[in-house]
Amino acid sequence: MDDVDDEDGAGGTSRGVPQIGDIPRVHVRRTADIAVALDQLAVRRGIPVLVLVGGAAGMTQAHLATLSSVLRQSALPLLDRLGAAVVDGATDSGVMRVVGQARREGQARFPLVGVAAEGTVNVPGEGSPGPNAADLEPHHTQFILVPGADWGDESPWLADVADEIASGAPSVTLVVNGGEITFDDVAASLARGRPVLVLAGTGRTADAIARARTQSDGDPRAAALASSELTSVVAVDDADGVRMALEAALARS
């Protein structure tokens, strides 16, 4: 997840919105604790995983609306059908807000696990880490809070959580928009052998990677990521293309 300017099943409700304090959450200190944390949160292992990375700055309301529509039409029904989980950066902003709201409004059933550095988010009953802390998105089903005070500290943990949930099952990283940290998120996925699907037309990092597939005068980081055989690109408004790409990645044997 990018910094707060870039990005960016529950309990009781207020006007139908779950209360953050009622959503199961666990603090972890070591990667070795992730498996125990997932057990405590009742998250199943050995299921397909969609890792959602990126941001929202530079995305117009029209782009966000298109993303929401594509998720509802293509991604969310597929995730439920495959018994998959989603892992993202947890905050109530950008793509995390879109997927959280889409999950609720579509009455989807998949686990939506947010991973956040504890020094960057507001957690009820735990005090505020600072004026720039972000709120957690209230339609997630579980939260894992990890060490760190800066945006990006959660990135390796997010990848580790996704690996543990998948436990050998297929996984894919979906890149939407994004800033500097998204380059690191994508590189981490590729280093783990995780396929990456870039949504072209969502801006910034996603579009830089998409352009690098056909142009040689762009960001060298984007070029390196685009050149991987694990990286594919689909237009954000191509709902059928998104569905087929995700199904090919998550349903592979």
Entry keywords:
two-stranded antiparallel sheet, alpha/beta, 253 residues, eight-stranded parallel β-sheet
What does this molecule look like?
This protein is an alpha/beta fold and 253 residues long. The protein has one domain (13-250): 3-Layer(aba) Sandwich (Rossmann fold). The chain is 37% helix and 19% strand. An 8-stranded parallel beta sheet has the order 3-9-6-5-4-10-11-12, with helices on both faces. A two-stranded antiparallel ribbon has the order 1-2. A two-stranded parallel ribbon has the order 7-8. Helix 2 (61-82) packs across helix 3, helix 2 packs parallel to helix 8 and helix 6 packs across helix 7.
Tell me briefly what this model is:
With 253 residues, the protein is of the alpha/beta class. It has helices at 34-40, 61-82, 94-105, 155-166, 180-191, 204-212, 220-226, 239-250, and strands at residues 13-14, 17-18, 25-27, 49-54, 85-88, 112-117, 121-122, 134-135, 142-146, 171-176, 196-200, 231-235.
